[in-house]
């Protein structure tokens, strides 16, 4: 049997531990993701979503618990060491690509796992260019004709679509999506979400996606977890998830957490 892609066991995160401002942000999270699971994470403000993603990515040292990727214990590995296994797309379309490099240069740098040394040594090879053109064409945004354009000159949505492509060029073990469509207008957000689902399905990727949009969390992905005060209160998948509506989800949240969801960003989405 193959190892799960991600195993988080007994994860606790404290901020300012031992001070009057102590904040127990994650309270014993257990989460296992199998290959091909596309999991939406939803929860109110301060529920612990970013803290969980940061703990998995390695940008936050773990207070207690363990994080394994592909069976390997990475709990004490740096972000850089984990970057071989994990790709992350952030909310800000400006994060994740170099504005003064062209589209093809950014893609080439991503293919070389961000190694400037390898990038400067070989530049963009002809076979790479052909592959980038094909991949960009599959997005249906006309970006295959913009290979030579500086990425900083593209719109937020175009840039985020390319960042997504960059993040998945090397087929990461785990893709982390950190509210990656939240800064886009609704129409562009829908386009980038559909592209995300397309890429995740085509490459059979395993992904963990924070969103404030309940409808997106229900529409996309094959599993959905809800966090509340540092704990997983809802974990639904497959058919059970497919049959849920937004009101069902709010009711489930209330039932499990003992209080109604109050986050406006979630409620108004
Ligand atoms: N660097 C930090 N220092 C101190 N407290 C922090 C820090 N980061 C997060 N917290 C606290 O930890 C708790 C969880 O925060 P987190 O950002 O993970 O929530 P979230 O679910 O991502 O919320 P939001 O939807 O508002 O982004 C909150 O109480 C927050 O104030």
TrEMBL record:
Keywords: ATP-binding, Cell membrane, Membrane, Nucleotide-binding, Transport. It is found in: Cell membrane. It is a peripheral membrane protein. The keyword Nucleotide-binding applies. The keyword Transport applies. Its main location: membrane. Residues 6-254 form the ABC transporter domain. GO terms for cellular component: plasma membrane. One of its GO terms (molecular function) is ATP binding. It holds the Pfam family ABC_tran. This is ABC-type uncharacterized transport system, ATPase component. The lineage of its organism: Bacteria, Bacillati, Bacillota, Bacilli, Lactobacillales.
């Amino acid at each position: 049997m193959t190892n799960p892609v991600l195993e988080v066991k007994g994860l606790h995160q404290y901020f300012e531990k031992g001070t009057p401002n102590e904040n127990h942000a994650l309270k014993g999270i257990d989460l296992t993701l199998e290959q091909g699971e596309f999991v939406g994470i939803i929860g109110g403000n301060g529920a612990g979503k970013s803290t969980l993603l940061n703990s998995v990515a390695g940008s936050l040292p773990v207070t207690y618990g363990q994080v394994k990727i592909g069976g390997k214990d990475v709990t004490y590995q740096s972000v850089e060491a984990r970057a071989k296994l994990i790709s992350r797309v952030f909310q800000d379309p400006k994060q994740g690509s170099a504005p003064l490099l062209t589209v093809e240069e950014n893609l080439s740098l991503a293919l070389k796992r961000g190694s400037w040394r390898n990038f400067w040594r070989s530049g963009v090879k002809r076979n790479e260019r052909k592959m980038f053109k094909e991949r960009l064409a599959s997005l249906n945004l006309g970006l295959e004709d913009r290979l030579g354009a500086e990425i900083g000159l593209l719109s937020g949505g175009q840039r985020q679509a390319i960042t997504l492509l960059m993040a998945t060029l090397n087929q990461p073990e785990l893709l982390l999506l950190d509210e990656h469509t939240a800064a886009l207008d609704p129409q562009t957000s829908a386009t980038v979400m559909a592209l995300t689902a397309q890429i995740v399905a085509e490459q059979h990727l395993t992904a963990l996606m924070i969103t404030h949009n309940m409808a997106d969390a229900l529409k996309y992905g094959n599993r959905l977890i809800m966090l509340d005060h540092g704990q997983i209160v809802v974990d639904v998948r497959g058919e059970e998830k497919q049959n849920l509506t937004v009101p069902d989800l709010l009711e489930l949240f209330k039932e499990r957490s003992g209080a109604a969801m109050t986050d406006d960003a979630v409620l108004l989405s």
